[in-house]
Design brief:
2 domains; 2 helices; single chain; two-stranded antiparallel ribbon
Length: about 120
């Protein structure tokens, strides 16, 4: 991360690819490194994940802010992932049901149990 030394504001992410116009109105192909101070990216909280935190970038200090999402939002996202996983399991094992219907070959017990769990999850939410 680059900070513009004179202003303390966040600088361009890629100064070597960012044009710059100086105070005299002269346009330069790249942002001069002498005007920037390089800073390491801030360390996120130990339990950081995109599922549990918002990450906001700002032009002024602090340049990156991590805010924990409300627990209801975290729970809703986890439930959504669980429902999608259950739907995917049912889709990926439908062929067992088709095979049983067409040929009489039994569905393995562990597949039947997982399908029951998936349907129960989907019907309960």
């Amino acid at each position: 991360m680059f900070i513009i030394t004179a202003t303390g504001r966040r600088g361009p992410a890629y100064p070597e690819h960012t044009p710059y116009t100086d105070a005299d109105g002269t346009r330069h192909a790249r942002f001069p490194r002498g005007l920037l101070t390089e800073m390491p990216e801030p360390t996120p909280p130990a339990d950081y994940s995109e599922a549990t935190y918002f990450r906001a970038e700002q032009d002024e200090a602090p340049y990156v802010v991590y805010t924990r999402k409300p627990q209801e939002m975290i729970d809703a996202a986890a439930a959504s992932v669980a429902r999608e996983s259950a739907r995917r399991l049912l889709q990926n094992t439908d062929w067992y049901v088709t095979r049983f219907t067409e040929t009489g070959v039994r569905i393995p017990v562990e597949i039947t149990e997982k399908r029951v769990e998936a349907r129960t999850l989907l019907s309960s939410q």
